[in-house]
Design brief:
By secondary structure, the protein is mainly β. It has one domain: Distorted Sandwich (Beta-galactosidase, Chain A, domain 5). It has two helices and 29 strands. Strand 2 and strand 3 form a beta hairpin. The relative contact order is 0.17. The model has no long low-confidence stretch (mean pLDDT 97).
Length: 349
């Protein structure tokens, strides 16, 4: 279902699309930034609640916000020094996170109007968003054509399938930046949410949140989520990595083979019984606990988003990979196809 949602910064109309499934779950997605604006998920009693942070109206998304529900690109996460070298050519990017480049720059994929097509599927509700990024946009080489298909299945899973091609060699790292709160959609903190991350290693960072290049074992550290633990149990512990991130703001190296769809993380909220499982084909998942939310943003239904009122699990390649040859490559060559899949699957216990 399509409805008008507002006017974009360039005067183009933006729309809101609602996906439904037979179990009653609903997902709303706008073609501005590919943002998932609402996700209605049942609790153990069958009551539907919105579990993502965001705004009631388009104006909120058009203003400054921390990428609520958006697609981040061309390069999700950070590139150190806002530069990289590819094919012997140095490329300078916007410094929009201190000295670093974050989430694609000043006008990343979260701030453009995508073209939308509603898809007629027999067993699911879906839309496809497409965007053509001109060569040189935000400093990146190559004309990039991107398509993302959002599919809501009857098994209460929201699936994102990504596809991209480029006219010239470039770097690419796409991700969905949803903020989740399985209790109340962001009115309170997520510290009691229990999290499991299927990862034996994580990426330590420096004081500017750029990975050092090490893949460090999680054992014996506050980064060990191999068994489910409440977010608040260790988040304020005496640990240098937690100090750098003001909490969790790191990439975990997901176990298993990149390219294969596999479980990356599981989140459980005991009051409602909601469970969210995150599956991905990507090598990493950035776990972020809303540490920089500060109460200055009023979101849906007047909720004030304070520190740690939402959590993110952003499936992606590693931050700063263009400057870390030991990391899995994010180079997309002309003639190649970039693909990835991320699934957010919901249930109750």
């Amino acid at each position: 279902m399509k409805q008008a949602f507002g006017i974009g910064p360039d005067g183009a109309g933006i729309d809101l699309y609602t996906l439904f499934n037979r179990a009653g779950m609903q997902a709303q997605i706008t073609n501005y930034g590919g943002i998932v604006t609402s996700l209605l998920v049942p609790d153990r009693r069958g009551h539907l609640d919105d579990v993502v942070l965001g705004f009631d109206h388009a104006d909120g998304y058009l203003g400054k916000h921390p990428h609520f529900g958006a697609i981040c690109g061309r390069y999700a996460n950070r590139i150190g020094g806002a530069c990289f070298t590819l094919g012997g050519v140095a490329y300078k990017l916007a410094r929009n996170d201190g000295a670093n480049h974050l989430h694609g720059g000043v006008r990343g994929f979260d701030k453009v109007v995508w073209q939308a097509t509603e898809l007629n599927l027999d067993d699911a509700s879906a839309i496809r968003l497409t965007y053509s990024s001109a060569a040189g946009e935000e400093g990146y080489p190559g004309k990039l054509d991107v398509a993302i298909t959002y599919t809501l299945s009857d098994s209460n899973a929201l699936r994102l399938d990504y596809l991209a091609t480029t006219s010239a060699d470039t770097v690419l790292n796409l991700s969905h930046h949803g903020y989740f709160n399985l209790l109340d959609g962001g009115s309170s903190d997520v510290l009691a949410h229990e999290v499991m991350i299927d990862a034996a290693r994580f990426l330590p960072v420096d004081a500017t949140l750029i990975p050092t290049g090490e893949l460090r074992d999680v054992w014996g550290t506050p980064m060990d989520f191999t068994r489910a633990v409440a977010i608040g149990a260790r988040i304020d512990g005496n640990d240098q990595q937690l100090a750098y991130g003001r909490g969790y703001d790191h990439t975990w190296v997901v176990n298993g083979e990149p390219g294969q769809l596999r479980l990356a993380a599981r989140v459980h909220e005991r009051t409602t019984g909601r469970v969210m499982e995150v599956l991905t084909t990507e090598p990493g998942a950035q776990f972020y606990t809303g540490n920089f939310l500060d109460g200055t943003i009023t979101g849906k239904h007047g909720a004030v988003y304070r520190r740690r009122h939402g959590l993110c699990l952003e499936c992606q390649h590693f931050p700063d990979s263009p400057n870390k040859p030991q990391f899995p490559t994010t180079v997309l060559k002309a003639g190649q196809r970039y693909t990835q899949t991320t699934v957010y699957r919901f249930s109750v216990v």
